[in-house]
Amino acid sequence: MIIREASKIDYPQLRQIYLESRRKSFHWANAEEMNLDDFDRDTTEEYILLAEEHSRILGFASLYLPENFIHNLFVHPDFSGKGVGTQLVNHAIEKMGKPARLKCVSENHKALGFYEKSGWKKVVEEGKPGEKYWVLIYE
Predict the structure, then answer these.
(1) Which of 68, 114, 115, 71 is nearest to 94 (CA)?
(2) Which of 133, 135, 89, 130 is nearest to 108 (CA)?
(3) 99 prior amide bond cis, ω within 30
C-alpha cells in the first residue's frame, strides 16, 4: 500500500468512496440526500492524501493544513479493518505535525473507537441534539 497526495485525476474514485462509505456507515444520516458532488464541496481548500494498492484507491484523508485538522477520513467499505485508516492517519500526522485535531460524529461509535485505540483523546462534545460530535486531539 502506498500513501500519496491525490490529484484531480483521482477525484472520480474518491467521490465514489466518499459516497459509498457514508451511505453504508452513516446510519444517522439520510442516504438519499448524499451524492457524488458532496466530495468536492466537503474537501474545498484541503490537502488530500490517499491510500492506493495495485492502482485502486482504498481510502483518503482530507486535511485542513492551517489548523492541523483532519476533516475527512474515509476507507472504501471493502477495505475497512485492514489498516488503511491507520496508515492514512499516521501520514496525516506526519504531514501536519502535532497537536492534530479532528471532529467525529458522536453517533459514529466505530470511528470513535478507532481514534481512541489510535491514541486520540476526546476533548469536548459539541453541537445541538441530533448533530453532536466529539472534538479529538492527538498530541
Answers:
(1) 68
(2) 133
(3) yes
For domain 2-98, the CATH superfamily is Gcn5-related N-acetyltransferase (GNAT) (3.40.630.30)
The separation between CA 81 and the C-alpha centre of its own chain, rounded to angstroms, equals 14
Q: Which helix or strand (DSSP H or E) is residue 24 part of?
A: helix 11-25
What's the one-letter identity of residue 88? L
Helix (H) or strand (E) holding 86: helix 84-96
Query: Whole-angstrom distance between the N-terminal and C-terminal Cα of the chain?
Result: 26
Separation between Cα atoms, residue 59 and residue 51, nearest integer Å:
5
Three-state secondary-structure class, residue 9:
helix
pLDDT digits 0-9 by tens, 58-91: 999 999 999 999 999 989 888 988 999 999 999 9
Residue count of the chain: 139
The pLDDT of residue 85: 94
pLDDT at 7 exceeding the cut of 80: yes
Model-level pTM?
Answer: 0.87
Could you count the other beta carbons within 10 Å of the beta carbon of residue 32? Answer: 7
